Amino acid sequence: MASVLVSQDSGVLSLTLNRPDKLNAFNPEMHKLLRDALERAIDEPGVRAVLLTGAGRGFCAGQDLSERKADAPIDLSVSLGSNYNPLVRRLRALPKPIVCAVNGVAAGAGANIALACDIVLAARSASFMQSFSKLGLVPDSGGTYFLPRLAGTARAMGLALLGERLSAEEAQRWGLIWKAVDDARLGEEAASLARKLAAGPTKGYGLIKKAIYASSGNSLDSQLDLERDLQREAGLSEDYREGVAAFLEKREPSYKGK
Ligand code: LHQ
Questions:
Q1: 45, 38, 55: which is closest to 92 by C-alpha?
Q2: 251 CA → ligand 1 middle, Å
Q3: Taking the CB of residue 73, how many other CB atoms lie within 10 A of it?
Q4: Most buried of the four, 59, 108, 174, 255, by CB within 10 Å?
Q5: pTM of the model
Q6: Secondary structure element (H or E) that encloses residue 99, with its range
Q7: What percent of the chain has pLDDT above 70?
């Protein structure tokens, strides 16, 4: 069985991390399968949203530590440089919305890969752990970037130093994720959200991602300039014309993603 299950339906590319016995801990094959699927998703017009989740009782336990048993020192920058960092960059840069359904524990890099997605739903029983410090490591895969921005420095520092479990509900209260939902509802809520996004103005969504993610590194002046430039692009899209026409004709828009 592949370590990432890939399927496509109604404009949604579903990616399911699939090493349930290891709580979907990452190995190189998973990185490769995710890389290939996300690369194809960039230009594939049939893909208008992505749904990322995990098989079994966990979402992802980060790096597979059984691959890290080493008597000699090991240079972890190699694996970050070749696998984790490109994955986080790909998720953020994909010009299509990514919904993450955190179905269980998300630990280490697994937590931060979830936070790199655009809309994160989590089952009420799921939890987030910056488990790195328990191994003597630093949060990676964007953790030291996402956490202070989403939750503030005090909470980011507590999460990073203590490595304790944060419940899905607390993660929602802290602004780390969009919503905690009942376990039994997670699959359907996430799928229906992804389908809704897949039927939306894809081009506009891609531009929204650009604007929101650029914001924390920009001054108001540069952000206003960026909004002007992105709005120019959005305004030239077919979907914008369709949106206005549908509004004026008092009907539902039919977006083509162009
Ligand atoms: C695992 C793992 C795992 C292998 C559970 N590996 N088997 C690091 C280095 C290099 C470069 C890039 O970046 C990184 C980033 C990182 O991600 S470092 C952080 C790595 N992850 C962790 O430290 C988390 C380790 N796992 C845990 O602390 C626990 O498993 C959690 C809290 C996630 C879940 O606890 P439980 O619900 O009690 O489950 P469990 O511990 O019993 O795990 C179930 C099985 O999954 C078990 O196998 P077994 O054969 O005994 O049933 C675990 O060994 C296996 N597993 N995480 N990362």
A1: 38
A2: 50
A3: 6
A4: 59
A5: 0.98
A6: strand 98-102
A7: 100
Please compute the mean of the pLDDT values over residues 87-98 and round it to a whole number.
98
Assign 70 a pLDDT band (cuts: 50, 70, 90): confident
Contact by Cβ (8 Å): 13, 49? yes
Judge whether 197 and 14 are in contact, CB under 8 Å: no
| pLDDT tens-digit map of 72-85 | 889 999 999 999 99
**Nearest to 118, CA basis, from 148, 149, 103, 96:** 96
Report which ligand 1 atom has the smallest distance to the Cα of 84.
Answer: 12
Q: Calculate how far, in angstroms, residue 55's C-alpha sits from the geometric centre of ligand 1.
A: 15
Average pLDDT, the chain: 97
**Rounded-to-integer distance, Cα 150 and Cα 115, Å:** 9
Distance CA 106, CA 88 (A): 15
- Ligand 1, atom 46, lies closest to the CA of 22
Distance 36 CA to ligand 1 centre (A): 25
The token pair that represents 90 in the structure block: 């790909």
Per-residue tokens: 156: 């980011």
Residue with CA closest to ligand 1 atom 37: 105
> Are the C-beta atoms of 132 and 108 separated by less than 8 Å?
yes
Report the side by side order of strands in the sheet with 49-54.
4-9, 12-17, 49-54, 98-102, 119-123, 179-181
CA of 61 to the centre of ligand 1 (A): 5
CA 83 to chain centre: 15
Q: Is 16 in the pocket of ligand 1 (CB under 6 A)?
A: no
Cβ-contact 237, 203 below 8 angstroms: yes
